[in-house]
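Q: Hi! First time doing this. I have a protein sequence and I read that you can turn it into a structure. Is that right? Here it is:
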Amino acid sequence: MGNLEIALCCTMVSWFCTASIATTDDNFICVALDWWPSSKCNYDHCPWGQAGIFTLDLENKVLSNAVKAFNPLRIRIGGSLHDQLVYQVGNTSSQSCRPFQHKKDGLLGYSAGYLTMETWDQLNQFANQTRAKVTFGLNALTGRRSPSGNGSILWVGAWNLHNALDLMNSYEINSISLLISGNELCSNGVDAKVGAEQYGKDMIVLKKLVKKLYPDPNTEPKLLGPGGFLDERWFKTYLTVFGRRVISGYLQPWFRHDSQYLDQIAQVYGYLSSTIKEYGPWTDAWVGESGGAYNVKARRESKIVSHSFSDGFWFLDQLGMSSSFNHKVFCRQSLVGGNYGLLNATTFVPNPDYYTIKILPQKLFVFSYSHCSKRKLVIALLLMNLSNSTTFKVVVSNVGNPHEHSSRGTTQREEYHLTPRDGNIRSSVVRLNGTPMVITDSPNIPPMNPKLVDPSLPITVAPSSIVFAILRDFNARACS
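A: Yes, that's right. Below is the predicted 3D structure, encoded as structure tokens:
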């Protein structure tokens, strides 16, 4: 990163970079709230409880304080069931407001569900009170004809915009900055899919609708393409239909937690980045949802690992890797629920991963796993020690500007040392500079104060630990 020289024990590692390789969105970190009901079960386990949107306690102080602490946090509202969600407004306001119910022949095993305006108002109020930036998933199957039972999952016909129009026309959506059309309906789909050409035509219709409702470009929500796994042929056809200035981003999910997949995901990120560069350079890549264990599979792994300190090694590696491949936003599935939440599903007490991303700067230029602030002479280093026995001493120097007064920074270095309680990486309690991050009688998130260190001293990285070091007044050439 930015001409840094790092000495690890007796080995010298030098990074030579005079320009940024990628940039992220101002709100790179994103979390998801999902529609799954408590009846959602896999592998004899029902991990959602009351954490789905219909039953989530949005008035809980711990929950709201956890979101508010980011100021702002991007929240994606949607998921697997949002293409079966009917908005109970306009012509549908008199229909039964039943929630999602098990249905043997329904998509993903569920019937349609109804979003009441009471719940919609609660969501908007929650977003406004916590200053969250909302990315809302629209139902992209409305008006289409379902397959005729021949084994196909292809839905045909044009999208019907009226229910979405009623929703947006009846209530001013101040907190919503982005709209997603559909969830995993592209390419081969999951339980349903839409052809690329028809999907592209529908995006033109949606764009016209949004521009009509929001004539001021400064308040107009941007559109994101369908969240789903990338297929080059499908994606090329889809983009060709409408060209520039319709969608602003393309979402791709990724759920793998095994260490053997860490190298493979770099290929996935690179493939999406290069495909967008070739066919749609005006749009951005997003990690639409990622939470480690797919479909909360491997119950033991997802329960023990995703809630523990050890998950931070995977999670931070994914954040650094995706951003280095020019992915603008990374959405964690989920904020709460599904065995991979940042918060406990019943108490909303933060899990270790919450604290790691709370430290991570939001406004970044990306240089490997180090970052320059966009607006200040500040560099953040992320150092992860996967060894359980070796302590590393990391010496930071400015190779490109070795004689400058600010080669190591002129103010005290801020260090955040994250370790598991009792040295057990499976612990669900993280210690910050030796202090356990736990909520006591107060619903407030505990203060996250750095350790102040002389910038000329090396950074000590203990075994099985994660360190964020903030270097102020560090004049790296790549940050210019």
